[in-house]
Design a protein that fits this description.
The structure holds 2 protein chains of 2 kinds.
Chain A: E1 4-6, E2 11-14, E3 19-25, E4 32-38, E5 45-51, E6 54-58, E7 61-66, E8 71-76, E9 85-92, E10 99-100, E11 104-109
Parallel strand pairs in A: 2-11
Antiparallel strand pairs in A: 1-3, 3-8, 4-5, 4-9, 6-7, 7-8, 9-10, 9-11
Chain B: E1 4-7, E2 10-13, E3 19-25, E4 31-38, E5 42-51, E6 54-57, E7 64-66, E8 76-78, E9 87-94, E10 102-103, E11 107-111
Parallel strand pairs in B: 2-11
Antiparallel strand pairs in B: 1-3, 3-8, 4-5, 4-9, 5-6, 7-8, 9-10, 9-11
The chains are: A mainly beta, B mainly beta.
């Protein structure tokens, strides 16, 4: 079983839609949760960083962690064509190893 | 501007050849990391270093080597022992364990 599972998509939505991206993880020791956005031929860019359970909001982006069900989500409100990218979830225990999902490719259609 | 610089952007390797990928950061981060990204497999950790002159193997270290002689630099050598080196290589840094990692823009390595 992979440490982190993520639906690879692809996911296509119309501009202005609410996007929901999700991951599940297997290790209950994971405490730190991240979402990265990666444009084609670029490195991942950190979008959201959360510790333990709960919600964190930053502009149009909301990250949600439910440790009881080992489920992490990223919501994008009022999606824009510039949001078209691959979104990677990642988690770690607090040691150095960061475990990544395989990424979900999102396309926002104007 | 603070950030992580990887070079070159594209690199080609001949059979039996070692190649070195450069990673430099000016974020004053203590920890640095190398990942390999393959389609459909996500990022996998090759090596990491928490301090100068110290580094640890990650999940897929075979066929790779690193050095950490300076805080800001963490070069990765892909040796001829790595039989499937074609991939996108990403360098990252952080202030330490448990802290968010920030990435460079990668080097794409291909075989001639």
């Amino acid at each position: 079983q992979k440490e982190v599972e993520q639906d690879p998509g692809p996911l296509s939505v119309p501009e202005g839609a609410i996007v929901s991206l999700n991951c599940t993880y297997s290790n209950s020791a994971f405490q730190y949760f991240m979402w990265y956005r990666q444009y084609s031929r670029k490195g991942p860019e950190l979008l959201m960083y959360t510790y333990s359970s709960g919600n964190k909001e930053d502009g149009r982006f909301t990250a949600q962690v439910d440790k009881s069900s080992k489920y992490i989500s990223l919501f994008i409100r009022d999606s824009q064509p510039s949001d078209s990218a691959t979104y990677l979830c990642a988690t770690q225990t607090g040691a150095n190893n960061l475990f990544f999902g395989t990424g979900t490719r999102l396309t926002v259609i104007p | 501007d603070g950030g992580i610089t990887q070079s070159p952007k594209y690199l080609f390797r001949k059979e039996g050849q070692n190649v070195t990928l450069s990673c430099e950061q000016n974020l004053n981060h203590d920890a640095m990391y190398w990942y390999r990204q393959d389609p459909g497999q996500g990022l996998r950790l090759i090596y990491y270093s928490q301090i100068v002159n110290d580094f640890q193997k990650g999940d897929i270290a075979e066929g790779y080597s690193v050095s950490r002689e300076k805080k800001e630099s963490f070069p990765l050598t892909v040796t001829s022992a790595q039989k499937n080196p074609t991939a996108f290589y990403l360098c990252a840094s952080s202030t330490g364990p448990g802290q968010p990692q920030h990435f460079g823009d990668g080097t794409r390595l291909s075989i001639l």
